[in-house]
Amino acid sequence: MGIRRTSGGDYDLSNPVESFADVVRRVLQPVGFFAGLPRRGSLLNPLVFALICTEIAAILGGILRLAGVGRAFVTGYGFQVPENQGFGEFIGSVVLAPIGGTIGVFVVAVIAHLLVRLVVGATNAGFGATFRVAAYTSVTSLVSWIPFVGGLLALYGIYLGVVGIREMHDTTTRKALVVVVLPVIVIVVLALLGLLVAGAIFFSRTA
User: Fold this and answer.
1) Are 19 and 74 in contact (CB under 8 A)?
2) Cross-strand bridge partners of residue 80
3) Are strands 73-75 and 79-81 parallel, antiparallel or unpaired?
C-alpha cells in the first residue's frame, strides 16, 4: 500500500513515521519534490515536519554534548545546544527546541517572502509556498549535530532553498538565488561590521 498524501505532497500527519521517512527521501530530490507541493493550504503539516527535524537534531546533538564530544551547535532555525551541557540543559534544549523551531521557521519564511515579493513580484505563489520551502529545507538540521561534517552538509540547505523558491514560485534560478543568498550576505556583512566595531573599541581602550 502506498503512502496516502492527503495534502498533495506535504508531510502526512495521518501516517507520521512512514511519511517522515518518505518526505526526507523525496526532499533530497528537490526539483520534483517542490514542483509537486501545493502552493496554498494549511501550514500545519510542513511546520510539523520542520519541528520533527529540529527535535531529532536537538536530541542527537544533546546526547553528543552529554558525552562531551564536539562544540556547541545551532539546530533547526537558530536554536543553540550548549557545549558540554549537563542533563538539565539537555532536557531544556529538547523541550525548548520546538518553540525555537516554530519561531525560527516563521521568521525565515516572512523574511524570505518579503524578498520574494520584491524580487519575483506579483506573480509569486503566495506566503504558503515560501513557508513550505522554509519548512522542508530544515531537513538539513538532521545532520547539523554532526561535528564539522554537519556544518558543511547544512550548506546544502542553500541549494534546496534556491530550488524550492524557483519551483514553488515558478521563477528563474537567478531570482531564487537572490532571495536565498541575500539574507546570508547581509548577516555576514553585519557580523563583520560588528567585529570591526568591537575591535575598534577594544584597541581604543588599550591604546
Assistant:
1) no
2) 74
3) antiparallel
Task: Please list, in sequence order, all residues whose beta carbon lies within 8 angstroms of the beta carbon of residue 109, skipping any fewer than 6 positions away.
Answer: 127, 130, 131, 133, 134, 135
* Tens digits of residue pLDDT in 20-68: 999 999 998 999 999 999 998 899 999 999 999 999 988 887 787 776 6
pLDDT greater than 50 at residue 4: no
Q: Which residues have C-beta within 8 Å of that of residue 118, sequence separation ≥ 6?
A: none
Beta strands (DSSP E) in 68-192 are 73-75, 79-81
Rounded Cα distance, 143 and 161, in Å: 17
Nearest to 139 by CA among 125, 120, 121, 159: 159
Question: How remote is the C-alpha of 206 from its chain's centroid?
Answer: 41
88 or 187, higher pLDDT: 187
C-alpha to C-alpha distance for 180 and 164, rounded to whole angstroms: 10
130 contacts 116 by C-beta, under 8 angstroms: yes
pTM of the model: 0.79
Give the number of C-alpha atoms closer than 13 A to the C-alpha of residue 79, restricted to the C-beta side.
Answer: 33
Q: Element (H or E) spanning 96, and its range?
A: helix 87-119
The pLDDT value recorded for residue 137 is 94
Q: Can you tell me the distance from the alpha carbon of 15 to that of 178, in angstroms, rounded to the nearest whole number?
A: 36
Q: How far is CA 21 from CA 53, 106, 113, 139, 171, in A?
A: 11, 23, 28, 11, 29
What's the CA gap between 162 and 172, in Å, rounded? 10
